[in-house]
Specification:
This is Integrase_H2C2 domain-containing protein. It holds the Pfam family Peptidase_A17. InterPro entries: Retrotrans_Pao (IPR008042). By secondary structure, the chain is mostly helical. The protein is built from five helices and two strands. It has helices at residues 15-36, 50-57, 65-77, 94-97, 102-107; strands spanning 45-47, 83-85. Strands 1-2 form a two-stranded parallel sheet. The two termini are 16 Å apart.
Length: 111
């Protein structure tokens, strides 16, 4: 199992821009794991941001360079059919990206 996180930049950024950056990290890790283990598995990537999912699925949008570069990378690394939406309330991984106390973590799906 592996995990990776980054701190938000000091300069202000929008939530969707931070979310697409997180998604790219996840897709990179998935691609690395499959490559290193020489596995041919059908891998699914779940995201709780409809904005990012729409960016990835739409081809004709005029994005800025930041978003466009990340969308291109995700499309190169993974098949678009394997990206799925999960509502934020049901995203058990989201708890770890927000501050929470130990009791919340113990009561969650992670325990």
């Amino acid at each position: 199992m592996t995990a990776k996180a980054r701190l938000a930049p000091i300069q202000r950024s929008t939530i969707p821009r931070l979310e697409i950056s997180e998604f790219v990290i996840g897709v990179r890790q998935g691609a690395t794991i499959l490559e290193d283990l020489k596995l041919q598995l059908n891998t699914y990537y779940w995201i709780d941001s409809m904005t990012v999912l729409n960016w990835i699925e739409n081809n004709n949008e005029p994005w800025g360079t930041f978003v466009e570069n990340r969308v291109k990378e995700v499309r190169i690394l993974r098949d678009m059919r394997n990206w799925k939406y999960v509502p934020e309330k049901k995203n058990s991984a989201d708890l770890l990206s927000h501050s929470c106390c130990c009791s919340q973590l113990l009561e969650s799906q992670w325990s």
